[in-house]
Design a protein that fits this description.
The chain has 60 residues and is α+β, with helices and mostly antiparallel strands. The protein has a domain of 39 residues. 28% of the residues lie in helices and 15% in strands. The chain has 2 helices and 2 strands, in the order E-H-E-H. Strands 1-2 form a two-stranded parallel ribbon.
């Protein structure tokens, strides 16, 4: 775990990948690699269950 008190005064950059990986591990890995190339310190993902969070009229 990162000790934020020992970090430099530079901002800690978090890349928001969200759900853009579309459930694909390979896409997620590519997005992580791109984030690293762009000097982000870490990435943040989200996971959603469409059956729970998408209204019935929008599922089609």
């Amino acid at each position: 775990m990162t000790n934020f008190k020992k970090l430099s005064k530079d901002p800690y950059l978090i890349a928001e990948i969200g759900i853009n990986h579309n459930g694909s591990i390979e896409t997620a890995k590519k997005l992580i690699d791109i984030s690293k190339e762009l000097n982000f310190d870490c990435v943040k993902f989200q996971k959603r269950d469409p059956d729970v969070c998408v209204p019935i009229e929008q599922k089609k």
